[in-house]
Amino acid sequence: MVAALDRRYPPAWAEEWDRVGLVLGEPAAPVRRVACVVDVVPETVAEALAAGADMIVAHHPLLLRGVSSVAATTYKGRIVHRLIKADVALYVAHTNADVADPGVSDALAARFGLTGLRPLHPPRPGSPADGPGRGIGRIGELPTPLTLAELARHAAAVLPVTAWGVRAAGDPGRMVRTLAVSGGSGDSFLAEATAAGVDAFLTADLRHHPAGEHLAAGGPALLDAAHWATERPWLDDLAAQLRDELGVETVVSDLDTDPWTVHAAAPRPDDKEPRP
Ligand SMILES: [Zn+2]
């Protein structure tokens, strides 16, 4: 299992700051059922244990920064204890799965039916991840051009459902033909989306100042989706690969781990009932 995952998502392809690969478990232990999740949190762990999984493959690292204790009295230590006691292994494929071809953003691009895919942020030439088709994010053409407002509504319909939904920045009537997508936090790729000449860029975790300055400089329109919703589509690809190549059973978590649970849009002026 570990060797097969390492072949598809070589740990050397991960960013330097990232922590990927086998986190918990015996490499030689047999694996019959794998749970695929974006986040390793108590809820997804409970779901994996209830499904009888022997292994969890997660996108986000459980232990990204150094820890000096995994005592069961700590949040993450509790998770580590639960997994070890249940004899469930944990494997992480993060930025090495983002950069792979196919990778996390290919599954996101597929939700929009994008064609002619190319990477948004190719790896540095000569770096371990350098190779044809590889890179973070994807650029492609929509099957039918849509206005930004239409595309935002379409995105909310084709992406996994979250309270956050999708918000867009820029002229709502702007026509979008070429779309860049990047699963997860895509703040740092705004300049590349502009340089690529796309009409719009869909990602997650966009912020006031970078977004505002990007638009003021004439950059592509922006769509800000829920972080979880942009990476959840990849779990289907991952599960299909594990089933087809390794013959293991898979369960894909649809548990929304996005932290935002309420979204209230202000009523539009014409929606307001006259007060008595
Ligand atoms: Zn992410």
Spatial shape: globular
Series of H and E elements: HEEHEHEHHEEHEEHEHEHE
Oligomer kind: single chain
- Alpha-carbon distance between the termini? 67 Å
What value does the Rg take, in angstroms? 20 Å
- Helix share, percent: 25-40%
Mean pLDDT: 96
Ligand roster: zinc ion
The low-confidence runs, each spanning 5 or more residues with pLDDT under 50, are none
Query: Strand count, sense and closure of the main sheet?
Result: 6 strands, mixed
The tally of strands reads 11
- Percentage of residues in DSSP E strands: 15-25%
Which structural class fits the helix and strand makeup? alpha/beta
Q: Count every helix, treating DSSP H or I runs of 4 or more residues as helices.
A: 9
Largest sheet: spatial strand order: 5-6-8-9-10-7
Protein name: GTP cyclohydrolase 1 type 2 homolog
Keywords: Metal-binding
Family: Belongs to the GTP cyclohydrolase I type 2/NIF3 family.
Subunit structure: Homohexamer.
Q: Please, could you describe this protein's structure?
A:
The chain has helices spanning 2-8, 42-50, 75-85, 95-99, 104-111, 148-158, 190-196, 208-216, 227-246, and strands at 21-24, 33-37, 55-58, 89-92, 115-121, 136-147, 166-169, 175-185, 200-204, 221-225, 249-252. It is an alpha/beta fold and 276 residues long. The strands form 2 sheets. The chain has a 6-stranded mixed beta sheet. A 5-stranded mixed beta sheet has the order 1-4-3-2-11, with helices on both faces. β2 (33-37), α2 (42-50) and β3 (55-58) form a beta-alpha-beta unit. α5 packs across α9. It is globular and about 55 Å long. It binds zinc ion. The site of zinc ion has 5 residues, from α9. Belongs to the GTP cyclohydrolase I type 2/NIF3 family. This is GTP cyclohydrolase 1 type 2 homolog. Homohexamer.
